[in-house]
Amino acid sequence: MPSDRPLASSPVVTIVGATGAVGVELIHCLEARRFPVSELRLTASARSAGRTLPFNGRAVPVSELTEESFRGVGIALFSAGGSISKRFAPIAARAGAVVVDNSSAFRMDPAVPLVVPEINPQAIAGQRGIIANPNCSTIIAITPLWPVHRVNRIRRMIVATYQAASGAGAAAMEELREATRAQLEGRAFAPKVLPHPYAFNLFSHNSKIDPESGYNEEETKVIRETHRIFADDSIRISATCVRVPVLRAHSIAIHFECERPITPAEVRDIVQTAPGVKLVDDPQRNYFPMPLDASGKDPILVGRIRQDVSDPSGRSIALFVCGDQLLKGAALNAVQIAELLLPR
Ligand SMILES: NC(=O)c1ccc[n+]([C@@H]2O[C@H](COP(=O)([O-])OP(=O)(O)OC[C@H]3O[C@@H](n4cnc5c(N)ncnc54)[C@H](OP(=O)(O)O)[C@@H]3O)[C@@H](O)[C@H]2O)c1
Question: Is pTM, for the whole model, over 0.85?
């Protein structure tokens, strides 16, 4: 049972998986957004115990995650993988913490809200247990689509992702750097983290394929999570998820069909005022969203907005988005959720 003790206005915050690609961005987001933290505690595996990480000008020690790590903790931000979340998130919740979990462990649990603050902040209301952060490709694809869906319901969407190394964690980023160096120097390189050669290559997303549907887990997450967050199972969705040799920030080509005719100008107007997104759409200069421009930035970049000419009814739009999935696709979204938990 989660605790019903009210959350302090400046709670003790712990990060589980603080040394990972998402973990260090969680620290960065807490600092950058001046999140009111009375004490920050960092945990990771035994390998990292004794390290320190900087926060607000201080070196904060990293300790090994144990069942005792959650005493007195108000908010626990988890980013250490699904198996750690499955084991330790319920322990943290029982100890009185509200858990914001970056893994996929609880995302389809009907008792656990799955939240993008720009879309369904109301799902958090009164929640004192575990809250799930959606999959990074899902967040980046649907945050710009939500304000469109609100004015002209989306009935069908087809997404194709171009996913960066950072989405597979710090070790995958290092593998991309190493593989690229090796390739340029003419050395052999055997991949250890990802299943295929990564430098100057791309491959279908490295998650399990469902033999029945032929979709991989990443594609299935985008489909199911979009239905859950939009609270609309009737949207017809298909996805192709691909890993590309980009260090950081995912790109996604999206085609969507609305209930009524819609123009690129209308979509541009909607995107211009929507929270969490930024219009980058300059056909004159052929300047559109790029992962390098999105890296290290909060907003999801949206551009290449055009009528989808394959639908003569005028109800379909094609566009292209890029978002830093370590930020809006993970750490930033989690810290935004934590902000919603603070007493007002
Ligand atoms: N990368 C993304 O863009 C992204 C986006 C959305 C969600 N996520 C999810 O966020 C989680 C973390 O991803 P990541 O990319 O940050 O991975 P990562 O770079 O590989 O980091 C993993 C973290 O988990 C810690 N860890 C591993 N085993 C542990 C153990 N037995 N006990 C305690 N801590 C342990 C690691 O600590 P050590 O350094 O000590 O090994 C490290 O801090 C995953 O569930 C992932 O699916 C990632």
Answer: yes
